[in-house]
Amino acid sequence: MYRTHTCGELRPSHINTEVTLCGWVQTVRKFGSITFTDLRDRYGLTQLLFNEQLNTRLDETPIGREYVIQIKGKVLERSNKNAKIPTGEIEVEVIDFTIMNVAATPPFTIEENTDGGDELRMKYRYLDLRRPMLKRNLELRYKVSRSVRNYLDTIGFWDIETPFLIKSTPEGARDFVVPSRMNEGQFYALPQSPQTFKQLLMVSGYDRYYQIVKCFRDEDLRADRQPEFTQIDCEMSFVEQEDILNVFEGLFKHVFEEVKGITITEQFPRITWDDAMWHYGNDKPDLRFEMKIQNLKTSFVHPSIEAPDHNIFCHALNGVDFKVTNEAESILAIVVPNASEYTRKQTDELTEWVKRPQIGMTGLLFVKCNADGTFKSSVDKFFDEDRLKDIANFTGAAAGDLILILAGNETRTRKATSDLRLEIGERLGLRNPDVYKPLWVIDFPLFEYDEEGNRWVARHHPFTSPKPEHIDVMINNDPKIAEAALFYKHPYNNIKANAYDIVLNGTEIGGGSIRIYQRALQEKMFAALGMSKEEAQEKFGFLLGAFEYGAPPHGGIAFGFDRLCALLGGQETIRDFIAFPKNNSGRDVMIDAPSSIDDQQLNELRLKSTV
Amino acid sequence: MYRTHTCGELRPSHINTEVTLCGWVQTVRKFGSITFTDLRDRYGLTQLLFNEQLNTRLDETPIGREYVIQIKGKVLERSNKNAKIPTGEIEVEVIDFTIMNVAATPPFTIEENTDGGDELRMKYRYLDLRRPMLKRNLELRYKVSRSVRNYLDTIGFWDIETPFLIKSTPEGARDFVVPSRMNEGQFYALPQSPQTFKQLLMVSGYDRYYQIVKCFRDEDLRADRQPEFTQIDCEMSFVEQEDILNVFEGLFKHVFEEVKGITITEQFPRITWDDAMWHYGNDKPDLRFEMKIQNLKTSFVHPSIEAPDHNIFCHALNGVDFKVTNEAESILAIVVPNASEYTRKQTDELTEWVKRPQIGMTGLLFVKCNADGTFKSSVDKFFDEDRLKDIANFTGAAAGDLILILAGNETRTRKATSDLRLEIGERLGLRNPDVYKPLWVIDFPLFEYDEEGNRWVARHHPFTSPKPEHIDVMINNDPKIAEAALFYKHPYNNIKANAYDIVLNGTEIGGGSIRIYQRALQEKMFAALGMSKEEAQEKFGFLLGAFEYGAPPHGGIAFGFDRLCALLGGQETIRDFIAFPKNNSGRDVMIDAPSSIDDQQLNELRLKSTV
After folding, report:
1. What mean pLDDT comes out for the span A172-178?
2. Is some CB atom of chain A closer than 8 A to the CB atom of B176?
3. Hey, which residues 483-522 in chain A have their CB within 8 Å of chain B?
4. Distance in angstroms (rounded) separating the CA atoms of residues B38 and B466
5. Phi, psi of A537, rounded to the nearest 5 degrees
6. CB contact, 8 Å: B229 with chain A?
7. Is A383 in contact with A403 (CB distance < 8 Å)?
8. B262 touching A, CB under 8 A?
């Protein structure tokens, strides 16, 4: 052993003992004839004191930042105690030292806040990983995985590995493919998820399966997506939706408790997809603050709310000679508490914000509900005081509040109102990363209509079961749609999936479903998605076959592990929670991959580049 | 929940309670007006009793093997108890049942011993996985991984994920490559091991890393190799060989204790590579039995043994006018205890065995040491009684033993004697799969000479450090060899690696080394392997760069997880310990992968098939 203790270990109880430490030189501070150094390793920092004799040696063989040294020394009580670090009560007076390895000057400072730019830090990732933030992140990641594994073990889940070299079945995202040398002209694909394999494990009777596993998607990378990412992948047999929600809510509570020290006793809220869209404008609502969307007028079909007057819910809109509100498909509002005194500058700024191309609205209407009970709006010309009061009543705005109103096409307006809600929440400091508000979103539509292909696509994936009460609708109707405009009227549009997402602070961190386990229903699903019988057989024959030999009812869920860690770390970018991430072009700039390969390698694979 | 209990759970304490069970119908046995059924799930078997009333329903909707059913029933004490299964004291009288899914007749029986052939079972792997043997194997695999993780956690190792899409560096085995769509004409490679990444993690200061991780090798598959396999991959900083051996010996003892209930208190034997070759003829000796190789004459250079008379150790060979022994480069023997009474038929059979092309010897000599003190040999014509006695003395054979002697070229003869030793051990029942004899093999040669390329190749890998005392020899000598015959005399031939293998029952289950951590030494290594400076920079520049910024001394080990599980399961084939293995052509015959892909996919990757 090169050391007797780590740099995070020594305490007053060690005073007067002789120790050997190894680590990296964090700082070198010379005071006259003595030198202080902080020595760093994974476990912490220890202050070293080089006395006068050793200073001569230090002059001959100087040590610098990031040098790796081994020291033998005696633990002393520190006169100048540092309460900020666990070893702050002691220091080690060096008796002897060895330079184990020298270090060139790092291209950026290796400290909590670095002066290094993104590119540079990615190239020297091995140095960036020395920074406390990244070390904390990877430690958190390990703790989360450990906590997940411990919990799942106690309730009988087995970690079972599924293959990485599988079959390409272009559905949804693009596969990464792997040419096979031994099977000429053929390709494996890397899994986008272990979906079909975990279902086969259920058919095999394995009952409770999980894996923390790499998955791959060859997508054009938006910011903060990675071509390879990690999933916590789970599946259970003989369960209904309720069982899955309970088991994995338990998992989350366990992880929160163990990793964050946060105890959540109450059940996570469960919100239907319809309600989420109705009240928040998206299917991953951030529940850290209320500020629900008020539906003044909308074409959105909410099953439990009947439009009293076509699609106008707020009567104040009726009989007003205002083109904008009359012609808008949807008019949606949010109420900003205590904001009636926003200045013209502030409301102008918000107007500019909604007009940005990412939001795409043409303008923003607002109603100030003054503290004195009067109203002032940007549409005073069309809406008299009574109507404004009606709007305030409808939206639940109180004196002192500000009502922000967006009008236009339903899809765009709802998205914009949702974005505006989040933006206002952000500006008001209501999106504290240390506050955690998990919830389940349930009852998703089973299908989405793809106008371009004039066909249904699976919202979750083709293995998701409809709600039991909708199976007949699915089986007994022809999925064909004569024309795009009629798709809202098609019975398939009302089929709900036996699917659920878990959402944390406005981010979807997991999703799953109860699966189809009957061959006939699975065949109907493939047909509904426009797959011919032959195609279905070629791609998924093994699964259809498996369903003939006694498939149990089953369901599961998968969590985005990278994202979950980032959220638990109170940060936004998953890249900082991955030891060796790729950049936005899918490149690892440290090892310089991907790269060209030898012609011989290509020849062996019977391939030719057309670049 | 579809069930209140599992099929392995009910005990006499449950008698008279009402339960709901789900599972697969294992057997249906009709006795007059009642029917017995065994219901199976992951947890066990429970006997069900369908009484007279329900039998009518069973006649209408019959249930068959592998049907999935749900039953409600009452737990009764069984009159005919079955001590072989944990639920054997009870049975469940069915009150109501539902057929959850029907099953076609399986293509083979789903029982301990099946009538299905290999091909068929691979195609219907999801049915084969229902068999108790495979279930036990996957359960064992999970237990081993769990035990490994638990142990490594307690001693401060962090599971840190390394990337799967890396860079192709053709060294050793062939890489699987992954064409990049976003980086035209370029390829990722799938890792053969996370070697360089785990070393970078040490440079980053992560101190103790592990991962249970998939690795990939595009090799022509010999029996029982898989293109994707799993490694337990570990690395530590500030350690020497001794530390690694102690830590991972601890891991093994923990796993043996926890998974097999076997307590090993003594230290694992440590045998140098030279000794292993000298005494056992291979570098992964099976220590479940002795029967060491006796070196009568050999050109093998064992460092601690000086040949008294050139390379003849057994004087009985001197002055004998026998061409075979005179001309042989090596003469090696093993002593089979209590086998002097082998019949002519038995010795003929052994002779045939060594003449098989896999062994490749031209014959087998033997000396019978009769119980009465006389000797009888197949070479009586050349060796008189005294000489036979000398041979018996030299080999340590006692009265009643049989000495088997092979002669010929050193390499082939040593290999053949090693094989013969194992074969005899097998025949004598000395290779009991329930007996475990782990050991370390240390002090491997650092280099092997590749005659074809007239260059040195790394025996372990290019990142392995020489023994500290051999670093100077490595640095100060030119690796070039004038001609192949001289390589034995080259100083590089005597350099020992700071490397170690762990061997269990004649199988290498893991290996590792202390790594090079100095740029200059690493560059010398690349040069010794025939890599140009430019090539080394292009392939491993990131690692050489990392060594400039304060790399600590470090080392590690990797275990073949599939093989380890097979050994702990007392079986030979790793395929039965992998949920979804590939066949010997690298195909998954269940999902039919690899397969052809769309031209569009190929076009997007800018590739063309030349098949």
Report:
1. 90
2. yes
3. 517-518
4. 61
5. -65, -40
6. no
7. no
8. no
Angle at B593 between CA A194 and CA A230, to 5 degrees: 25
Contact B184 A518 (CB under 8 A): no
Put simply, the chain B residues between 12 and 31 with a CB less than 8 A from any chain A CB are 22-24
CATH of domain A289-431: 3.30.1360.30
For the stretch A79-91, pLDDT in tens is 999 999 999 999 9
The complex scores an ipTM of 0.95
| Alpha-carbon gap: B418 to the closest alpha carbon of chain A (Å) | 33
- Mean pLDDT value of segment B373-389: 93
How far is B269 from B249, CA to CA, in rounded Å? 11
Mean pLDDT (chain A) is 94
Residue B206 near chain A (CB below 8 Å): yes
> What was the pLDDT predicted at B222?
75
**Domain ranges for chain A:** 12-101, 133-264+560-603, 289-431, 439-548
Summarize the confidence of residues A38-42 as an average pLDDT: 97
Which pLDDT score, from 0 to 100, does residue A484 have?
Answer: 75
- Measured CA to CA, the distance from residue A22 to residue A152 in angstroms comes to 38
pLDDT of residue B245: 98
Task: Give the total residue count for chain B.
Answer: 611
Instruction: Give the number of other CB atoms < 10 A from CB of residue B267.
Output: 12
CATH of domain A12-101: 2.40.50.140
Identify whether the C-beta of residue A147 lies closer than 8 Å to the C-beta of residue A568: no
Distances (CA, A) of B582 to A453, B6, B227: 37, 32, 8
Q: Is A429 on the interface with B (CB under 8 A)?
A: no
Residue A308 above 90 pLDDT? no
By CB atoms closer than 10 A (0-12, 13-18, 19+), residue A38 is buried
For chain A, positions 560-599, list CB contacts with chain B under 8 A. 578-580, 582, 585-588, 590-598
Mutate to test the interface with A, among B133, B165, B169, B202 (most CBs of A within 10 A): B165
- The per-residue pLDDT for B305 is 81
Task: Please give, rounded to a whole number of angstroms, the shortest distance from the CA of A390 to a CA of chain B.
Answer: 48
Whether residue A104 and residue B605 make contact (CB cut-off 8 A), yes or no, is no
pLDDT given at position A453: 82
Q: Which residues of A touch B196 (CB under 8 A)?
A: 591
pTM across the whole model: 0.95
High-pLDDT (> 70) share of chain B, % = 99
**Is the peptide bond prior to B594 cis by the omega test (within 30 degrees of 0)?**
yes
> Is residue A171 scored above 70 in pLDDT?
no
Mean pLDDT taken over chain B: 94
Contact B579 A160 (CB under 8 A): yes
How many CB atoms neighbour CB B610 within 10 A? Answer: 12
A1 closest CB neighbour out of B190, B243, B610:
B243
Give the tens place of pLDDT for each residue, B395-450.
999 999 999 999 999 999 999 999 999 999 999 999 999 999 999 999 999 999 88
**Is B122 in CB contact (< 8 Å) with chain A?**
no
User: Is A453 buried (19+), middle (13-18) or exposed (0-12) by CB count in 10 A?
Assistant: exposed
How far apart, in whole angstroms, are the C-alpha atoms of residue B211 and residue A244? Answer: 29
For residue A124, which residues of chain B lie inside 8 Å, CB to CB? 545, 549
Contacts of B22 in chain A (CB under 8 A): 237-238, 552
- Kindly indicate the confidence band of residue A307, based on its pLDDT and cuts at 50, 70 and 90: low
The answer to whether A371 faces chain B, any CB pair under 8 Å, is no
> What would the pLDDT profile of B428-442 be if each residue is shown by its tens digit?
999 999 999 999 999
CB-CB under 8 Å, B22 with A238? yes
Tell the CATH topology of A133-264+560-603: BirA Bifunctional Protein; domain 2 (3.30.930)
